[in-house]
Fold this sequence. Notes:
single chain, about 290 residues, mainly beta, Jelly Rolls, about 45% strand, DUF4249 domain-containing protein, DUF4249, signal
Amino acid sequence: xxxxxxxxxxxxxxxxxxxxxxxxxxxxxxxxxxxxxxxxxxxxxxxxxxxxxxxxxxxxxxxxxxxxxxxxxxxxxxxxxxxxxxxxxxxxxxxxxxxxxxxxxxxxxxxxxxxxxxxxxxxxxxxxxxxxxxxxxxxxxxxxxxxxxxxxxxxxxxxxxxxxxxxxxxxxxxxxxxxxxxxxxxxxxxxxxxxxxxxxxxxxxxxxxxxxxxxxxxxxxxxxxxxxxxxxxxxxxxxxxxxxxxxxxxxxxxxxxxxxxxxxxxxxxxxxxxxxxxxxxxxxxxxxx
Length: 289
């Protein structure tokens, strides 16, 4: 549960964490509620509610928290549990009393005196069908198999972790930096990069309805005993948000003040932010000696 919590909190923090400045005028449409939540199955819903403000720093917004906001969660249109305000890793969140459930449709609303009420809606996608994780000590290749469901468009986010046993239980310890292996990733030849990342976000357009083997290349030699992979099925809204946020971050890192900033995707009515569904599948293996 702690790893799930840290992953969700990490997603929410990533949406506002950057210190790259740009000497440009960003359009400001007035004070609005900013509502952010990534809804993970079997986990409480963690909701970040803040107030927008005009800034000259892309993503480094330091928005004012709104602990007095009225926040509600609807599941398939009906009220679903309660929420309470909590401080987690130095930031405030509204946390649901009940965990999110597979196949459900969630609406999150927030209201605050003096600001327009906001709402965002998304559905929980299918859990990825993944298996056969493999890695060998002294190498830098990792493999697993994914069976993509036919008839619908699917979106995925992939993390790799060093893992070890604690109290007889295998747990993720450290995230691994990797890339798609250019020698084997024929389905992804046009998106293979020289750079290594902590995650890859991908759409199934290259392998829709197929069973495909992912071959990943780690930046460092594999020298640990166990490995875990987290393959997350994400909604279309989550995919659009993560893709546009990454492009905005990339533009900021390049310090190109002549290029208009990328507008990060939002599905929040009358405000900013994202309500996004996701469903993670964990697989693990003992690293082959």
